[in-house]
Design goal:
3-stranded antiparallel beta sheet, 8% strand, 5 strands, mainly alpha, Arc Repressor Mutant, subunit A, two-stranded antiparallel sheet, Four Helix Bundle (Hemerythrin (Met), subunit A), 2 domains
Length: 247
C-alpha cells in the first residue's frame, strides 16, 4: 500500500516517504508513465483527504518542490488541479490554502448521496449473483483486517471498492456518474476514520449488514441500509468540523 504522509504548518511542509514509495517515484520519473505533476497532485490530495493538511493551512510551492525533488512547474500544475476540484483556494498575497469545509454543504452532499446510493443499491441487488456475493465478502474480510489493525486509509479504499462494485452491476450509467462525481467532491470527509476510530468498526458492521441483505435478495432493505449509512455520516463530519473551528 502506498503511504505518502504529509505533515504541515503554516510555514513548512515536510514530506516523509517510505523506501518503496521513493523507489516507485523514481521509477515514475525515469519512465515518465506518470507525470511529475500527477505524482505531486496525488500526494497532496491524499494528504488533504486524510487530514494531514488541514483546512486553512498554507501549501508552499518552495517546500513541496524541495522535499519531492521537482521543479516549480509540476507543483504549480498540481495546485491548479486541486484548486479546480475545490481542495485548495488561491488567496491573494498568501498563495494556496487548504479550503475550509462548510457544514451546510456537507449536509447537502450526504443527503443527495444517501438517496442516490440507496437507489443504486436497490436497483443493482436483483442482478448480483452468487459469484458477486463471494467477491463482496472477500472485500468485507479485508475490511475487517483493517479494523483490527486500525488501517483507516486502506479501509477507505476498500469501502469505495465495495460500493463501486455494487453500483457498477446496474445498467444505470448516469446514476453511477452522479454518484462518482459526488465521491470526488466528498473524498476528504474520509478523515472521519482517523479522527473517530470507533467509526471504523461501526462502518464495518453497516457494510456487513448491507452485503447480507443483498445476498438474501432484499433489495429495498439493502437500499435503505445504504441510505441510512450515508445519512449517519453527514452529522459525524459536521460535528468534527465544529470541533475543529472551536480550536
Amino acid at each position: 500500500m502506498h503511504k505518502v504522509i504529509l505533515f504541515t504548518s503554516i510555514l513548512t511542509l515536510k514530506i516523509r516517504l517510505k523506501k518503496k514509495d521513493q523507489l516507485r517515484m523514481k521509477k515514475n520519473f525515469e519512465n515518465t508513465y506518470v507525470s511529475k505533476s500527477e505524482i505531486v497532485y496525488r500526494a497532496l490530495k491524499k494528504a488533504i483527504i486524510f487530514g494531514e493538511l488541514k483546512p486553512g493551512e498554507r501549501v508552499k510551492v518552495e517546500n513541496i518542490k524541495h522535499f519531492l525533488g521537482v521543479s516549480s512547474s509540476p507543483v504549480r500544475e498540481a495546485l491548479k488541479s486541486l484548486e479546480a476540484e475545490g481542495f485548495l483556494n488561491n488567496v491573494p498575497c498568501v498563495g494556496s490554502v487548504v479550503s475550509e469545509l462548510d457544514s451546510k454543504e456537507i449536509e447537502e452532499y450526504y443527503l443527495i448521496r444517501a438517496n442516490l446510493e440507496g437507489l443504486a443499491t436497490e436497483l443493482a441487488t436483483p442482478f448480483i449473483d452468487k459469484e458477486s456475493i463471494s467477491h463482496l465478502r472477500e472485500i468485507l474480510n479485508k475490511m475487517e483486517k483493517c479494523v483490527q489493525s486500525n488501517d483507516y486509509q486502506e479501509y477507505s479504499t476498500l469501502d469505495k471498492k465495495l460500493h463501486r462494485f455494487i453500483y457498477d452491476i446496474s445498467s444505470y450509467k448516469k446514476l453511477q456518474k452522479m454518484i462518482y462525481d459526488l465521491w470526488n467532491i466528498t473524498q476528504r470527509f474520509k478523515i472521519i476514520f482517523r479522527l473517530v476510530p470507533k467509526r471504523l468498526s461501526e462502518s464495518y458492521k453497516e457494510h456487513t449488514a448491507i452485503v447480507e441483505a443483498i445476498a438474501q435478495g432484499k433489495a429495498k432493505i439493502a437500499g435503505l441500509l445504504v441510505k441510512k449509512q450515508q445519512l449517519k455520516a453527514g452529522p459525524y463530519y459536521i460535528k468534527l468540523l465544529d470541533k475543529h473551528r472551536k480550536k
